């Protein structure tokens, strides 16, 4: 299996990329990382699909190995949607499948609908963050499920008032939360720690806020769900059951019903990082979806 790595010149800088299975002639899968401000590293297990097709990773501007602009005006979904379109063009992709995790699902949708990227033939949206208000409500519901000692701390953190708690209490509450709804693997994979270590904090703070629990960034009012009905390509939505915790709102059904012909898969023993928690089941679901939509091509 051939691996190719390098940099692409696009408007505003250089984008790092790596292709696993670069010598395979099947339709490539381009993988778009979330964060905001993460690097591609935590999605590396998806290179397990490179036995059938090229799997392309890249780091967004101001992330990981790519150019650092330090320009907050770029830190918005629309910019990164246009950037993805430029990456597809620079790689010479006439057609591709696109997988976006979390915040990156909005990037993929924006690339297709707003940047008018004709190369994207199917989309896999993993734990998609397409509406800031829904994300904010999810966080509140997840906090309500925490043990009381942590629930109290996190509720105060949402109002940016943590003065009555020690740093140890804050750290324990956040860790408990993340291990419930973010990644439930006992020992987090090294690839996830790499992305965390490379995170662009200023980027994250601009789009999310000082923390997940004090959501004040520009994604708070973001909503692209009203445009999902315009999607004309096949879509697979994937979720971890433990990230769908709101008893009054079926998030998976809401998104599925918004996208014509979309298919939804929920992994019962997983949460937001379901590609790390149930890797083999996740890869098989994606593999089957891609095979089905290539049949007869």
What does this 3D model show about the protein?
The protein has 297 residues and is α/β, with parallel strands linked by helices. The chain has one domain (3-134, 188-294): Alpha/Beta hydrolase fold, catalytic domain (Rossmann fold). It contains ten helices and eight strands. An eight-stranded mixed beta sheet has the order 1-2-4-3-5-6-7-8, sandwiched between helices. Helix 1 crosses helix 2 (103-113) and helix 4 (148-158) packs across helix 5 (167-181). It is globular. The two termini are 23 Å apart. The mean pLDDT is 94.
Secondary-structure element series: EEEEHEHEHHHHHEHEHH
| CATH homolog superfamily | Alpha/Beta hydrolase fold, catalytic domain
CA gyration radius, whole angstroms: 18 Å
Proportion of residues in β-strands: 15-25%
Main-sheet strand order equals: 1-2-4-3-5-6-7-8
Percent range of helical residues? 25-40%
CATH-scheme architecture = 3-Layer(aba) Sandwich
Compact overview of the structure:
It holds the Pfam family Abhydrolase_1. This protein has one domain: 3-Layer(aba) Sandwich (Rossmann fold), CATH 3.40.50.1820.
SSE arrangement:
Layout: E1 3-10, E2 13-20, E3 29-32, E4 55-58, H1 77-90, E5 96-101, H2 103-113, E6 120-126, H3 132-144, H4 148-158, H5 167-181, H6 190-198, H7 201-207, E7 235-240, H8 251-258, E8 263-267, H9 274-277, H10 279-294
Parallel strand pairs: 3-4, 3-5, 5-6, 6-7, 7-8
Antiparallel strand pairs: 1-2, 2-4
Helix pairs in contact: 1-2, 4-5
């Amino acid at each position: 299996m051939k691996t190719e790595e390098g940099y692409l010149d696009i408007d505003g800088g250089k984008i790092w990329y790596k292709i696993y299975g670069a010598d395979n002639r099947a339709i490539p899968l381009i993988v778009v990382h979330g964060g905001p401000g993460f690097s591609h590293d935590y999605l590396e297990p998806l290179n397990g699909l490179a036995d059938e097709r090229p799997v392309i990773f890249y780091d967004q501007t101001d992330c990981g190995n790519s150019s650092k602009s330090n320009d907050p005006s770029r830190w918005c979904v629309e910019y990164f949607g246009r950037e993805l379109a430029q990456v597809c063009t620079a790689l010479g992709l006439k057609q591709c499948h696109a997988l976006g995790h979390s915040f990156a699902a909005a990037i993929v949708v924006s690339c297709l609908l707003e940047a008018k990227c004709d190369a994207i033939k199917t989309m896999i949206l993993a734990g998609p963050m397409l509406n800031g208000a829904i994300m904010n409500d999810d966080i509140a519901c997840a906090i309500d499920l925490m043990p009381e000692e942590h629930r109290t701390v996190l509720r105060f953190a949402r109002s940016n008032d943590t003065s009555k708690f020690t740093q140890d209490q804050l750290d324990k509450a956040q860790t408990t939360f993340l291990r419930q709804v973010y990644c439930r693997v006992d020992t987090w994979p090294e690839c996830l720690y790499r992305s965390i270590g490379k995170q662009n904090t200023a980027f994250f703070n601009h789009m999310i806020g000082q923390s997940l629990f004090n959501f004040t960034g520009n994604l708070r009012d973001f909503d692209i769900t009203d445009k999902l009905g315009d999607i004309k390509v096949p879509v697979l939505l994937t979720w971890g059951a433990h990230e769908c915790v709101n008893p009054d709102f079926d998030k998976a059904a809401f998104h599925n019903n918004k996208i014509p012909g979309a298919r939804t898969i929920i992994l019962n023993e997983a949460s937001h990082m379901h590609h790390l928690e149930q890797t083999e089941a996740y890869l098989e679901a994606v593999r089957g979806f891609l095979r089905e939509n290539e049949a007869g091509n």
